Task: inverse folding
């Protein structure tokens, strides 16, 4: 999931996981293999570079899922939840550079 903090209409983590607990989960406890973590980390780094440099089409606003068992990728459009408190806080404190 890529979040472009410049956009007011961008969904956030809480839009995706509204009822997520504050408890931290780690990859070894949830059964995620180490090579998968490395592959996803490399993709996150690439998406960051694309946003900074302004090249290509960003995955911002999409959720990219990977099933390593079947080597299957899925790209899902993620809408912003209009009732998301985290987004409401962000939108309330957001100021455009243009005024």
Result:
């Amino acid at each position: 999931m890529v979040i472009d903090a410049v956009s007011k209409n961008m969904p956030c983590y809480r839009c995706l996981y509204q009822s997520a607990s504050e408890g931290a989960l780690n990859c070894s406890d949830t059964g995620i293999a180490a090579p998968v973590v490395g592959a996803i980390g490399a993709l996150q780094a690439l998406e960051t570079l694309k946003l900074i440099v302004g090249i290509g089409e960003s995955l911002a606003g999409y959720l990219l899922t990977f099933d390593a068992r079947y080597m299957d990728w899925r790209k899902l459009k993620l809408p912003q939840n209009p009732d998301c408190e985290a987004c409401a806080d962000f939108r309330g404190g957001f100021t455009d550079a243009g005024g």
Observations:
- Strands lie at 62-67, 72-77.
- The chain is about 35% helix and 10% strand.
- Residues 94-99 have pLDDT under 50 and may be disordered.
